[in-house]
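note to self: dont lose this again. the chain is below, predicted strucutre after it. 159 aa total, dont forget to put it in the shared folder this time
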Amino acid sequence: MNAVEEVPKHNPVPWIQLLIGTVTATVVTVIADNAIKGEDTRPHNRTLLTNECLAEQHSSYLIFFFAIAISGGILSNSWAGFTLLIAVLLWLAFYTQGVRSTTTHQTKIAKDHVCTAGCTAELKSKTKRAIYLMNLVFALLLLGFGLFLCFMAVRAPAQ
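---
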């Protein structure tokens, strides 16, 4: 009688944990950088920091996508490998556009109101959306790709 090797059931949880961990680490470093540089006292910091966190967290997806490509066994499935390629290309576009958007917020704020040091005026909802909506959409799309790939990976990160 031949012993049949039991194929372990796929468990996406370790990949999801890795994805959440990389995104969280990136966001925490952006928040720490904001506080260390004293930018936490700048006018409209909450909105600007939200946009910066959304933009910089894109970098965590590149790390995640490479980790899943190298160790997830995903490239054995051609269309999953194609999905990974699309995700990396989208990441490239999203990251560059996202980071660039963190340099253009002053123009958007100027359209809302005249802002000087110590400004306490509340930004209009339309202005807030103009500042961070693009990065929010990008983040949700990359999260969708990331979660899909978590379920497509054949092996867990520790295997």
